[in-house]
Write a structure and sequence with these properties.
alpha/beta; five-stranded mixed beta sheet; two-stranded parallel ribbon; globular
Length: about 170
């Protein structure tokens, strides 16, 4: 990462702290990337700010299960952002407690969040408030549990007894 890119990311960090005071819980710079930890209550506003600042690509939303790791909360969401025009990467982390998996949807900011949020919902159980169609996307509709949680019984066989017509889902897009 060049000095100018590092400076631009530092300026963005300062700007978001001014726009949404108290929203940033911390930051780190592994491998010269900027990773910021944002409070869940302000994550939508912070992510919207970054979209307005040119982070036009939401590459992914990754769910993380921190079971067995000394950490404040069991789960974490990682939003992976990229600014095409500025060639900048940014990761935004949000801690999510196990007893309250509600997080604001960002599908109104990036259309790609629609399917990424459904995947995080399906695999981990995050509930994205305001999502237009929060339903399973990888597991069948009869599936019980969330397959990427560390405590999910991996040998549990779950067979679908009915089929689902997915054409209605494709037509929505």
């Amino acid at each position: 990462m060049t000095h100018n890119e590092k400076q631009k990311l530092e300026e963005l960090l300062t700007a978001v702290e001014q726009r949404v005071p108290g929203a940033i819980e911390g930051s780190e710079r592994p491998y010269d990337d900027l990773v910021i930890l944002v409070k869940r209550a302000q994550c939508h506003e912070v992510l919207k700010f970054f979209r307005e600042q040119g982070f036009d690509l939401l590459s992914d939303i990754a769910g993380v299960d921190l079971l067995g790791v000394e950490h404040k909360d069991r789960f974490q969401l990682v939003y992976i952002l990229y600014s095409i025009a500025n060639d900048l990467r940014l990761r935004v982390k949000v801690n999510v407690p196990e007893d309250d998996m509600n997080v604001p949807s960002v599908s109104d900011i990036w259309h790609s969040a629609n399917w990424a949020e459904r995947e995080a919902y399906d695999m981990f159980g995050f509930h994205f408030e305001g999502h237009p169609n929060l339903s399973r996307i990888l597991c069948h509709s009869e599936f019980e549990g969330h397959a990427l949680r560390k405590d999910y019984p991996i040998m549990k066989g779950q067979w679908a007894t009915t089929s689902t017509d997915l054409m209605s889902h494709l037509e929505e897009e």
